[in-house]
Amino acid sequence: MVARHAVRVDRPRGSRHPRFPEVVYPLDYGYLEATSGGDGEGIDIWVGTRPGAGLIGAFVTADPHKADMEVKLVWDAGPDDVATLERFYAPQPQGALYVPRP
């Protein structure tokens, strides 16, 4: 799917969440253009630091405030990037489970 849809990074690494400025994105974050995810927007995607790694897995998140679940693809990332994202999600109210690509 990632090969057929352009990745649009709208929250670069180091940027702050527009509504929650205490949340700083540890990696590039965006969406796949011309797709639809669980929230009606494009499918979410994290872009890591290992170009060429391709799709390595996804985080499944459950947000009690929005009462929804989403899948966030993990692209061009390595084990260190996954660990960074696990630390990013750990203190947040939404639950997150990493599912590696088989």
Q: Could you outline the blueprint of secondary structure elements for this entry?
A:
Layout: E1 7-11, E2 28-32, E3 44-47, E4 55-63, E5 68-75, H1 79-89, E6 95-100
Parallel strand pairs: 3-5
Antiparallel strand pairs: 1-2, 2-3, 4-5, 4-6
Brief rundown of the structure:
The chain is mainly beta and 102 residues long. The chain has one helix spanning 79-89; strands at residues 7-11, 28-32, 44-47, 55-63, 68-75, 95-100. The radius of gyration is 13 Å and the shape is globular.
Task: Give the mean pLDDT.
Answer: 94
- Number of strand segments: 6
Largest sheet: 6 strands, mixed
Strand order of the largest sheet: 1-2-3-5-4-6
The CATH C-level name is Alpha Beta
Ends apart, CA distance between termini: 16 Å
Can you tell me about this structure?
With 102 residues, the chain is mainly beta. It has one domain: Inorganic pyrophosphatase (Inorganic Pyrophosphatase). Helices cover 11% and strands 36% of the residues. It is built from one helix and six strands, in the order βββββαβ. It has a six-stranded mixed beta sheet with strand order 1-2-3-5-4-6, with helices on one face. Strand 4 and strand 5 form a beta hairpin. The two termini are 16 Å apart. The model has no long low-confidence stretch (mean pLDDT 94). One of its GO terms (molecular function) is inorganic diphosphate phosphatase activity. InterPro entries: Pyrophosphatase_sf. It comes from Propioniciclava coleopterorum. This is Inorganic pyrophosphatase.
